[in-house]
């Protein structure tokens, strides 16, 4: 079954409103909504903010039978060409706040684990095709950098670009990716840009987040029609 996760209510409410035959499944720490969206059986959920919530939610989705995972939401654009409203489709995900460099590991690498987790080629292709039909929106395929931090400085954004070659900054994708990779379940992360992770990020985020969350939702619906 296809699972769709957003971190916040704003990121899933537009999909939840159209879920047919909705059944709410209570799991420890998270409620999963099962139903039919645009003719496709889905599990839909608000996973909460940050990597721990994302990992917990993904684990429960896999326990409930998810075989493909889409994460949808907003992000801070780090790629120099990204503007508010644009879309990032993940090539892979890294955890930018993991630092075991003192023991000789590359920054971002969890000892014993892959340095990054690759998104599924088919889900990427379907997400890309769905995003490219949205008018006046640039679509970038790139690396999603996740950490338990809201990035809001030019230095912070430059570090993610320079150290990781990131396209965007957010707080959940790599946790979803890590859990899915361990289980061998395909995933993709789709993010619309609410801010550019720089000095104006807090103001832009508050102003644009609800509006641009719609773009990511449009991509998900396009994917449902194509999968
Ligand atoms: N989500 C949206 N904007 C973000 C930012 N600047 N940093 C981290 N997560 C975000």
UniProtKB/TrEMBL annotation:
Pfam family, one: PNP_UDP_1
Organism encoding this protein: Deinococcus aerophilus
Keywords recorded for this protein, A-Z: Amino-acid biosynthesis, Hydrolase, Methionine biosynthesis
This protein's record includes keyword Lyase: no
NCBIfam families per the UniProt record, alphabetical: MTA_SAH-Nsdase, PRK05584.1
Protein name: adenosylhomocysteine nucleosidase
EC number: 3.2.2.9
Keyword NADP (UniProt): no
InterPro entries for this protein: MTA_SAH_Nsdase, Nucleoside_phosphorylase_d, Nucleoside_phosphorylase_sf
